[in-house]
Structures are given as structure tokens and as C-alpha cells.
Write the C-alpha cells for this entry.
Amino acid sequence: MSATIEIRSAPHIKAPRSVEQIMRNVVGALLPVCAFYVYQYGISALASIMVVTATCLLTERFFVKTGTQSGSLADWSATITGLLLALTLPPGYPLWMGVVAGFIAMALGKAVFGGIGFNMFNPALVGRAFAQAAFPSAIATYTPSFMSGRFTEFIPSTLAWPFMVPADTAAWLSSKHVDALSGATPLSKWKFEGVLTPAADLLTSLAGHMAVGPSPVLILLCGLYLAVRGFMDWRIPLAILGSAGLTAWILFGIDPQHYPDPFFMLFSGGLILGAVFMATDMSTSPVTPRGMWVYGATIGLLTVVIRYYSGLPEGVMYAILLGNAATPLIERFTQPTPFGKSGLLRPKRTASYPLHPEYISREEANAVTPKKKFFKNKPKS
């Protein structure tokens, strides 16, 4: 038995789950990751998470209040954006730059499209991309984890005044009798120095004097919780990691002296965090099962290609943003074809499709359409 309903904007969910319930569980899964990040880097990381998240919440509140976008703070989406954006920034990133990145993430990544469910790109990655373009030096400055005194003093660059050059991190590390090169990320060490970080250190992130993010094992456990509860589709992270691992394995087999092993490629950088929490954003990822496999495989392949052949050591951010941009095209070519119909026929833009009766749209009865839109649906005559 089937029912005919109108397809609306993502994310699409199954009753009786609500958007708020899904987002609340995602926030709960992110909290252990944030706690581990604070354990690694101390009060500087805590201040960054709190300031960036607060900026995202205030920006969301402003745009909802002015009628620019729909939604509310109760849907937890702005909280997720703030937490993810803070986790992608260096622990000693100047707080005022974090405020700018948080505002851009919500304004350009979400509000201009109309609010939750209407955005085309992951808002946290939009803010991260802006921060990398606007403040390239600061965003490339990392400090080692598990520094002594990390819970009693800030990393000097954290408290830089707006529009002022942050304090010299290298001089601060020298005063701590720590080699400044310890602040290089494992990907940077491999790409620019040819040094591979031990596998055990990458997997747990518990080794000191390393510029690494939260433990990949912890992130995978949190993602497993979401997948088991049905709040995240497992196909996307599995496709990303499988595609990245397979590509790295092929290149490693061709030239093991030039390319690192697949394990290093999977567990270094932000690939695990991006695959589990960012690429799975329901608003910016495909809804068709085949589309999820194609989407994830594309992101994994692009990540390895960017890491190997570009001037940047990390490529997860750009790979996911490119995958977000390709989502409408992927969905178009992976839509199920009705029995007896040719797959070459193009579906009408206003058509309705038979779906399972429990498969409903994200839009609820009390959803409010934005009063103002930056981008009109139709050009003025």
C-alpha cells in the first residue's frame, strides 16, 4: 500500500521522529568528542567551542527574528554547526576570528537559503572555508596536544585583539621547551617533510606533543550510536572511508615509497570527523540509497586526490563541499525508475511520487516560511 505525497526540501524523516529529536541526538553524540578535544588542548579549546557555538546561536536567532529564515534555536541545528565548526579550527585560533567564522557559517551557509532544510552546503564547512581564505596563517597554526598547564593558561594566540596579529606561537612553544615543529599536523609532516606518524598515535590521539584532533576511534563510536539508533545513514561514511581507503591502497601498491599506506590516509586529518558528522548532513546529502553510495565514494576519492596532488595537506572540507554541490545531480540520476517506465524520461519538476506512508517530509504543520529571501525563486519580469 502506498500514498502519494509531495516531496519537499530535505531532510526527509520517518514518523514519528522529529527534526528536533534527530538533532538533539547528534548534539549528544558530539559532546564526548568535544570533551576529548578540551582534554587535549585545555581552556583554549573550551573557549573556542563556547564562543563559536554562541555566535552561531545568536546569528540564527537574529535571522529568524528578522524573518530572513525559518526555524528556531529549539531545532538544535545551529548548535551542531557551532560545535562542528569549532572542532575544525585550531585550538589556539583567535576567538574574534572564530566569531567571524561562526557568523559567516550561519549567514552564508544557511540564512541566505531560507533556513534549515533549504541550505545547499554544510554551514560549518562554509564557515571553515571562509576562515581558511580570510585568515590562512592563523588557521594553519597548530599547537601540540597535552601541553603542561593547558587547563590554567590560554594559548597566547587565542586572546588576540580583533584585527591585530596574534602572538607568536613558536616563541611560546620555545619558552615551554617544546620543538615548534611539534605543532605541525601529521598530514603536514608527511606532505612537506616526508615523516609518517605511527598508526597507534593516529588511532587514539593520546600521544602528547602532536597536533591532532579528537580520537578517530571515539568519533566512530559516536557515529555508530547514531547509526544504530537510526539517526544517521551508515551508507555515506562507509562509502567515504571505503573509497578513500581503496584509492590510497591502489596508489600505495603502485609506489609505496611515494604514497603513504591506507591506514595513514584514513585516520589522519579530519576525514573521520567529516565522514561521520559533516557529509551525513541530511539537508546537503542525497536521500536515495544509490545516491548515498555515489556521493560518499566521490567525497572519498576527492579527499585523497586533493591531499596527494594539491598544495594543501588536507582536502576533506573541499571534497564534502563539492559533494554537496553535486547532490542535486546525483539524486537526479539515482531516482528509482517506476516499473515499465524508461530511465531516460525526465521527471517533471512539479510531479508527485508514490512513497511509503510513513515516509514524510521534514516540514511540519507549524513550519513557517521565511518572510524575506535573499535569493528569489523566479527573476523579476
